[in-house]
Design brief:
heterotrimer; A alpha/beta; B mainly alpha; C alpha/beta; A: six-stranded mixed sheet; 8 helices; 10 strands; B: 2 domains; 11 helices; 0% strand; globular; binds adenosine-5'-triphosphate; binds magnesium ion
């Protein structure tokens, strides 16, 4: 580790959902440290609790036990210091691009001229110049996710939480957006916790990859990706790491499948 | 003014096809009406037919109806309260406007609350379901005595407008995409802000549906509301009184006026919609 | 696209409204008279509650809605309608010309009128002997028909004058009403011409047909029913005490199991929609639709509906005269018509006989009657 301060500190985190009178243990003793400026990917079989981790850190979900701290403070509620980007974009359809981006500033009662300054810069930064007054329905998927990222950045959050943000994009757009994200990340030096299903995406983006176990989710293995950026997806090192991650995952997939077949 | 004429002429040119289609449907309607009236009277082109005079009086020629509309603005027949049509219009508009504003002010917050809170819903639902199916007409005598002349008819129109708005707002508030609320929360919004900046804007299209339907029902209720004890007349009163003396031309004239007023209020609702959207930061 | 069309429509509608309002302001200056009484339209059944609740200061209506308030100590009668216009016509019996000219129509109508005459005579006798059994029977019938208690009904019966004759006064009064309607724009002289009458006198002479009533006097009872498969379809108003004669004529229990209609060989049934709850115009629609053969209704709706929409329902007998009253709130300090100035009087509507009577009464005192605003 490079000695930077720990921004996200999760220890012994557990989460129990109750549905139809049944207890579903989503997380059990999950622990993770993410340092400032780090890009960490969460990977794991479907239903293992990745989204749950993110939502607890974001403050959208209450934890059942353990601790989740951001900058040393226990998370209690959602707040603008932790920006979140959703797979479904979650843009406000009645607001224009500019107004979507300015939402967080509006909430903070930032004066209108300052808001306009911020949104103008961000729109240029994410490459949406010319679309300021477009409504979300007029945008392509990639453009929507740019707006969502810009909206999260407008609050200048310490932490960016991203839940499969590129999951619904086609392969080309997805690759492009991954590059864009890295550009934004390195320019803004955010701490990113990124959930994905794609091993390749994780290896391409992350400093470290957290492979989770099947439900109840905990950390199975943390794999460093010591490759310099930009990374070449066809390089031997890349493929080696990818195979390693895949191997870890495969076992969990098997377990998850078995878990689905056998009763709780 | 120049921009208005410009935009109007633009509208006419760009919409000429649609305007022609509308004109065609209107012409067909008026032609059929004319033919039917002529048939009942055995007028040209039906000279050979045996006339049905007693039915004919129920279906006047449409130009006679238009003439009756015109005349209603300058004559004061005693059976319609000795009032000019303009005074009737004013009275009805006053009723509809007050009822509409009251319905909006009460139904929107109630609907948002009932749509977002299960407890509020449990509290309100039985009452809503109890009163909603009652036709406003049934309240006429009761409201007359409880609310008196001024508020009685307004209360009837209010009921007509209130429930469509309430139910649509409940539906809208309930269908707010939860991820939008999550997004707002991660952007720093608290409960009150979320209501104002997410739940309410999301509900607006539903609200507009409620307003459009509600105003339509409001105009339907106006005849019932003004049938009894309408102070200062009203277009509904005009129709009711003309019917009482079998003056069908006048009755049709009242109907035409109500139709125009309904278009007017729906137009105003459209303006409200645009104003709301601007207010919410749509444009 | 749609929005622009809406805007155009709004502009047009707005022009109409603005134009109309300015016309109203220009033409709206009215002459001042000594005093104006305000009126409002309410269904008679709601008048008592409105009076008690203070919504109105007075009302004019027919029985039993007058006695209802008096017996209930809610109101006092300021004037009975006979004080306004003695023997004024009120309800009449009318026949559809289609029925009259149909198979056996004249015969059936005459028999119907005979039963009407007999019912009237029986009622006159019953009312003349309040201690007799017939009086009790009549009150019971009226109680059932009007859903009012016996006290109200007894009080009401004192002020209704039942009778079938149509004398010259009756015709003159109907002519006066018609003239007043033309004056008030509620119908027009042009309509009169349209219907084929040269004057209101001509109209009354043709529209009021006394010959059937004359012929009815000599009708004798019949042992068989003449119209077993085509009953006469009778129209009447809901709970209107003025139309009690048809209640009596339909009653079987008070007359040894045979109603007066049956006695004269008639089968009578309620017309579709009868009893009509919202007045004579509703019944006129029944006449127009061919659903009513003979009906009891107010003279004004019979006249107005004929004039304005051509419905034919010839007036063939009177049902009652008088029997309406102007009621003011009890202990309200209103002692004469002048006291009504700037007060609110409820009427059953501008096309009712009660409205006419109120106008006649106020005219005489030089008072105006205007809708409450
Ligand atoms: N609100 C909830 N109520 C009940 N159970 C829930 C709720 N949210 C999540 N769960 C359960 O918790 C477990 C973890 O869910 P989570 O969404 O975190 O998984 P995930 O790893 O994000 O899955 P995916 O990869 O499919 O998105 C799942 O079994 C899910 O069914
Ligand atoms: Mg997930």
């Amino acid at each position: 580790m490079d000695g930077k301060e720990v921004v996200i500190n999760i220890t012994h985190l557990s989460k129990v959902f109750i549905r139809d009178r049944r207890r579903i243990i989503a997380l059990d003793d999950f622990g993770l440290e993410v340092r400032e400026g780090e890009f960490v990917c969460l990977l794991g079989p479907s239903g293992c609790g990745k989204t749950t981790v993110l939502r607890i850190v974001a403050g959208l979900e209450a934890k059942s036990g353990g601790s989740a701290k951001v900058e040393g403070k226990e998370v209690r509620d959602a707040g603008p210091d932790r920006g979140m980007v959703f797979q479904e974009f979650a843009l406000f359809p009645w607001r224009t691009v500019r107004k979507n981006i300015e939402f967080g500033l509006e909430v903070k009662h930032v004066p209108e001229t300052d808001r306009a300054d911020v949104s103008k810069k961000l729109i240029e930064f994410v490459g949406l110049k010319g679309f300021e007054d477009a409504h979300p329905r007029e945008l392509s998927g990639g453009m929507k996710q740019r707006v969502a990222i810009a909206r999260a950045l407008a609050n200048d959050p310490k932490v960016l939480l991203m839940d499969e943000p590129f999951g619904s994009l086609d392969a080309q757009t997805r690759n492009l957006m991954q590059k864009e994200l890295l550009r934004i990340w390195s320019a803004r030096r955010k701490t990113v916790l990124f959930v994905t299903h794609s091993v390749e995406e994780a290896v391409y983006l992350a400093d470290r990859i957290v492979v989770m176990t099947a439900r109840p989710g905990k950390v199975r293995e943390i794999i460093d990706v010591p490759l310099s950026r930009p990374r070449d997806r066809t390089s031997r090192e890349f493929i080696t790491i990818r195979s390693k991650v895949l191997g870890e995952l495969e076992e969990e997939f098997e377990k998850a499948r078995a878990g689905e077949l056998s009763p709780e | 003014m120049r921009s208005l004429t410009k935009s109007l002429s633009k509208v006419f040119i760009s919409n000429w096809l649609r305007l022609t289609l509308s004109a065609v449907s209107l012409t067909v309607f008026l032609t059929l009406w004319w033919l039917f009236s002529a048939y009942l009277r055995a007028d040209w082109p039906f000279q050979g037919v045996t006339p049905s005079p007693s039915t004919a009086d129920y279906i006047p020629y449409w130009w006679d109806v238009l003439r009756a509309v015109g005349r209603s603005f300058v004559t004061r027949p005693q059976n319609t309260g000795g009032l000019l049509m303009s005074e009737h219009i004013l009275a009805s508009l006053k009723r509809i406007s007050i009822a509409f504003v009251l319905a909006l002010l009460s139904a929107v917050p109630l609907g948002l609350l009932m749509g977002r809170s299960r407890n509020a819903e449990a509290l309100g639902r039985p009452l809503v379901e109890l009163f909603r199916p009652i036709p406003p007409l049934a309240w006429v005598p009761i409201f007359l005595v409880i609310f008196k002349f001024f508020w009685g008819p307004i209360a009837i129109v209010f009921l007509g407008i209130f429930f469509p708005i309430l139910l649509n707002v409940i539906l809208g508030a309930r269908s707010v995409d939860p991820v939008l609320i999550d997004a707002a929360r991660t952007l720093g919004a608290r409960r009150g802000t979320i209501f104002g900046k997410v739940v309410f804007p999301f509900t607006t299209p539903y609200l507009m549906t409620g307003i459009t339907v509600g105003l339509g029902i409001g105009w339907m209720c106006i005849v019932a509301a003004e049938m009894l004890g309408a102070v200062g007349g009203g277009v509904g009163y005009y129709i009711f009184a003309a019917n009482n003396t079998s003056q069908y031309e006048l009755m049709y004239a009242g109907m035409v006026v109500i139709g125009m007023l309904s278009v007017l209020t729906t137009g105003i609702a459209g303006l409200i919609e645009r104003w709301l959207y601007r207010w919410m930061g749509k444009k | 696209m749609e929005k622009k069309l809406i805007i155009i429509a709004v502009v047009i509608a707005a022009i109409v409204v603005v134009g109309g309002i300015s016309a109203a302001l220009l033409l709206g200056k009215e002459s001042k008279t000594t005093g104006t009484v305000k009126y409002i339209t309410i269904a008679p059944k709601d008048m008592k509650a409105a009076l008690a609740g203070g919504t109105i200061d007075a009302y004019i209506a027919w029985e039993p809605y007058v006695s209802d308030s008096v017996v209930g100590n809610v109101g006092d009668v300021l004037e009975w309608s006979d004080q306004i216009m003695p023997n004024h016509p009120c309800c009449v019996v009318a026949v559809s010309p289609d029925f009259l000219n149909g198979p056996n129509g004249v015969n059936l109508t005459e028999r119907f009128l005979k039963a009407h005459i007999e019912a009237n005579k029986w009622m006159a006798d019953a009312l003349a002997h309040p201690s007799g059994a017939n009086y009790t029977a009549l009150v019971n019938m009226a109680v059932q028909f009007t859903s009012r208690n016996a006290t109200v009904v007894k009080a009401a019966l004192e002020h209704v004058k039942y009778g079938y004759e149509m004398n010259q006064d009756f015709r003159n009064a109907l002519k006066q009403f018609t003239d007043m309607y033309i004056d008030a724009n509620m119908t027009t002289a042009a309509k009169l011409q349209d219907r084929g009458y040269s004057s209101t006198t001509d109209f009354i002479s043709k529209y009021v047909n006394g010959s059937l009533l004359d012929a009815a006097r000599s009708v004798t009872p019949s042992s068989t029913i003449l119209n077993p498969s085509n009953p006469i379809r009778l129209g009447y108003l809901l709970g209107d005490l003025h139309q009690l004669a048809q209640v009596v004529a339909q009653n079987t229990t008070a007359f040894g199991g045979t109603s007066m209609f049956q006695k004269y060989g008639l089968l009578v049934t309620n017309a579709t929609g009868a009893p009509f709850a919202s007045g004579g115009t509703e019944m006129s629609l029944g006449f127009a639709a061919g659903a009513v053969d003979i009906g009891y209704l107010g003279a004004p709706p019979a006249i107005l509906n004929h004039m304005n929409s051509g419905v034919k329902a010839l007036i063939i007998a009177q049902a009652n005269s008088e029997g309406s009253g102007l009621v003011v709130k009890a202990n309200s300090g209103i002692h004469n018509l002048e006291d009504l100035v700037n007060k609110t009087v409820a009427t059953p509507g501008e096309s009712s006989i009660q409205f006419l009577l109120l106008r006649i009464a106020l005219d005489r005192e030089g008072l105006d009657l205007k809708i409450k605003t």
